[in-house]
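Exam review. A common question shows you a sequence with its structure tokens and asks you to describe the fold in words. Practice with the pair below. Do the first one on your own.
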Amino acid sequence: MRAKLAALALGMIVMAMPAVMRADPVTSGHGVRGPVTNLPLPRFVSLKTDDANIRRGPSLTHRIDWVFKRRGMPLEIVAEYENWRRVVDKDGAGGWVHYSLLSGVRTVIVEQDLTPLRARPDREAQINAYAEAGVIARLGECTLEWCRIKTGKYRGWVEKKALWGVRPDEIRE
């Protein structure tokens, strides 16, 4: 009887939790939708401003843990609550940020130093330029193995494994 009461109490607690806390979208796989936007979770976005306070919880009363200072930085939204989005960066650092500081414009970070930007999605194609690790680039179309990116006046095809901010199985037209 005591075990049944404990299970019932736990079930009531789970039901009372905000929808954002019921499932871990990072581990629960594809098909998870945000309770606020009905958009897929997790999903990539970019930072709209040069400064964004990243808070411990989804409100202005929560402590600021981080300040992201790089406009265009790709972030991954892993949860939603009202006007707040829980984000993580490529290193796993993150917290809650107001949705108005985020943009749907897709960007990526080059993770491998001196990554070649090629004229075509082919390892033998002409190299247009090289990108250093840490460069933020605008994301264009992607195949299973390659993505077209643009950074400053340079553009080209990069192997997807050299980028953070795009899923390995993601195809973009």
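Now try the second one, then compare your answer with the model answer below.
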Amino acid sequence: MTQKIIIDELGGRGDGIAHMDGKTVYVPYTVPGDFIDAKLNGSKGRLRHIHKKSPYRAEPICQHFGDCGGCMLQHVEKEYYRDWKRNLVKTALENQGIADVEIRPLEISPLGSRRRTSFQAIGRGGGEIILGYAEKGSHNLVDINMCPILVPAITSFIEPLKKYLRNNLGHKQKMTIQVTNAENGLDVVFKGNGEIDLNMRMDLAAFADENDLARISWFDTSLKKPYFEILAERRKPYVTFEGNKVFFPEGAFLQATEHGQNVLISAMLDGIKGATRVVDLFSGCGTFSIAAANLANVHAVENNEEMLDALKNSANMATGIKQVTTELRDLFLRPLLPHELDNFEVAIIDPPRAGARHQMVEIINSRLKKLVMISCNPVTFSRDVQNLIEAGFKMGTVTPVDQFLYSSHLEIIATFERA
């Protein structure tokens, strides 16, 4: 059924919201003030025609927008987008009864700055392939030839990657290609079902040479315990944290943009100022540990052995930093306990999207005076903030960081001090 609708607001996931006849309807790719025709299916609407454009509507910058599900919000005017994204934090906090919080203006990473992505590919037979991202709410792949969000080094890699896959991807065969832009070249991981033969190993090594890749690896998704198998490492990929090189392992998690990384590091350094002993929980390969070691001794705790080894090796090679110790530990199953946390003045915590409820309980029960919290989920962040405030922590200024342009994802960092 097609119906005329006026969009009232922009929802937390980026869909336009209309209220009609006591029902709430969600319509992607719309903005408040749009007067539209939408095809309705329950609470979901599909944009069919715009009768009158909202003043908050902008022209998309990418030819694939609306088909490719990678971006949801290119059609939103810049200042409205900036306020909306900043208000994601404000709304999440208010929903937990937390008001009067100072939220800094949104830090937005520039276009062409995202340094990691995962392309999906499928063979169509006869040397044809589709490489790109899925449509919104669908498994259908949209073939892309450009992306204004990605760093130019990754964008220019799309065509050589397609050329290789046309000759090597069979009919209906699927593959994921994870690409990370290190400071000395691309780190590329091919992910597929099954072991690869000698010919493909040689082909991929030659492909790395032809395209001057830093490293190329294979990841067999059919294994019970998949692992990264390096096929060619021409240069060990690295990134820099506060002037110190970190050589990261295959498939390592990095902040999505260098700009976002540096904003978060700067805010973290302000938060730990004056401390001499710091613990970094969910440290990864050292985004915050290595930077914090410029000011204090750091104990880094992480459950991924490869990332922890990378951090350890990088700390050993770095000059001018203080002591960095490491601990391999699953903080979901074995969070640091109060008597362990009491050895430190400040904790840095950057948990996964689901948060770290058990570790937060132990922090609250410890004598820890200060906490710097980084989060990629306003909802779990607000839940943890409520618990901290109830336990007597005072919340400092919140800095929202947009590393995921034109999406509803957001990074947040704030410092908490025990009253």
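Model answer, second protein: The first strand starts at residue 2 and ends at 6. The domain at 116-182+185-236 is CATH 2.40.50.1070 (OB fold (Dihydrolipoamide Acetyltransferase, E2P)). Full marks require stating both points clearly.
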